[in-house]
Amino acid sequence: MFKSLKAFALSLSFFCFAFLSNGQTAYGAPEPIEYLLATINAGTYVQRDDITVKRFRSLLDQLSQKYVEDEQQIADMTVKIIEILKEKGISEKPLAIMEGMNSLFHSNAGLRYVEYVSTYVTLRDSGKSHEAAVIGLRMLLRALGVR
Q1: How many domains does the chain have?
Q2: pLDDT (tens digit, 9 = 90+) per residue, 92-126?
Q3: 94 to each of 26, 27, 72, 144, how far by Cα in Å?
Q4: Residue 126 DSSP one-character state
Q5: Radius of gyration of the chain (CA)
Q6: Cα separation of 95 and 81, whole Å?
Q7: Residue 87: what are its φ and ψ, rounded to 5°?
Q8: Side-chain-facing half-sphere of 86: CA atoms under 13 Å
Q9: What's the CA gap between 2 and 127, in Å, rounded?
Q10: Which of 44, 73, 76, 128 could pair with 132 in a Cys bridge, judged by C-beta atoms 3.0 to 4.6 Å apart?
Q11: Phi and psi at residue 44, in whole multiples of 5°?
Q12: What pLDDT sits at residue 145?
């Protein structure tokens, strides 16, 4: 069924995140959102003190202040976007997507994360690279007078 341990770990991470998004493991112990994201990002197990766990914590704090969605919603949407992109043959890491969405605004914009990640998917599906999609979003925001 799985071609490698890495594929199994990634599938397990998606399962935990998608079905146990209340922050609980199958054994009832809490798993922080940032740890689950770091595991998905790496595609394998990561140490709890890994730098990416800390970076995801920081990004979740920042994004939940800039957008109207809470940390759990932002994490769930990011994972869903990865799945959608994968179905389209596009590989991207949650860290890159969240860094890109974080770079769009410098302060609390009160806008919806879902709208910007949806536009990101549209740009990626049209053949744009990650960097070009984020630049395209910034240009769109400037044209609309949002910043």
Answers
A1: 1
A2: 999 999 999 999 987 777 789 999 999 999 999 99
A3: 23, 25, 14, 27
A4: T
A5: 15
A6: 12
A7: -60, -25
A8: 11
A9: 29
A10: 128
A11: -160, 180
A12: 81
Buried b (16+ CB within 10 A) or exposed e, 41-70: bbebebeeebebbebbbebbeebbebbebe
Exposed, middle or buried: residue 145 (CB in 10 Å: 0-12, 13-18, 19+)? Answer: exposed
Q: Is 50 helix (H, G, I), strand (E, B) or coil?
A: coil
Question: Tokens representing 28?
Answer: 């009832």
Return the minimum-mean-pLDDT range out of 33-37, 64-68, 142-146.
142-146
The residue range of the domain holding 44 is: 5-144
Other CB atoms within a 10 A radius of the CB of residue 3 amount to 7
The DSSP code for 44 is S
Q: Which long-range contacts (CB under 8 A, 24 or more apart) does 88-91 make?
A: 88/124, 88/125, 90/124, 90/125
Nearest residue to 99 via CA among 68, 76, 124, 130? 130
Write down the pLDDT at residue 128: 97
Tokens linked to 85: 């992109």
Q: pLDDT for 28-47, tens place per residue?
A: 667 899 999 999 999 999 99
